[in-house]
Specification:
six-stranded antiparallel sheet; 4 helices; alpha+beta
């Protein structure tokens, strides 16, 4: 990519997915407010396209907050028809480069680099200058090595 490309990692990440989540901003606000009241910091957020009145909402937290989020999600499951999936011991790998903002093909380079790994990519989030991938513990080293070899 460029001399300013940085690949960083964060270990011990829990992915929480709320399926059949109400597809409205008020519900998103309510859930994230309740999580903040538990003292839990949210990192990555991704929402699937809506299917009628519902969607899928995924977010990540530190594994250190696993007990707290399980308490929250247990209560949520009792009060709603949502399905909740919680997966811990994941890793976030982020590729940052300010040239991404105005350079076509960066995402193609990132995904070409890892295409041969057959990795279980749990979540993808992006900004104008960063692509972040949440991967399983089993795939972490393989994906990180592939990105480093191809991009650095």
């Amino acid at each position: 990519m460029s001399a300013s490309t940085v690949i960083s990692t964060v270990d011990n990440i829990t992915l929480v997915t709320l399926q059949d989540f109400p597809a409205n901003v008020a519900s998103i606000s309510k859930v994230f407010e309740a999580i903040s009241q538990c003292g839990i910091n949210i990192d990555m957020i991704s929402m699937a396209p809506t299917h009628g009145a519902t969607t899928g909402l995924s977010f990540t937290i530190s594994d250190e907050d696993l007990i707290g989020i399980l308490g929250f999600t247990s209560k949520l499951k009792q009060e709603t028809d949502m399905d909740v999936i919680v997966s811990s011991v994941n890793h976030k790998i982020s590729v940052y480069d300010p040239v991404m903002k105005n350079t076509p093909g960066i995402a193609a380079q990132v995904f070409r680099a890892i295409s041969g790994t057959d990795a279980d990519i749990r979540l993808i989030t992006t900004s104008e200058v960063e692509i972040s991938l949440l991967v399983t513990e089993a795939d972490f080293d393989t994906v990180l090595n592939a990105l480093q070899e191809a991009l650095l």
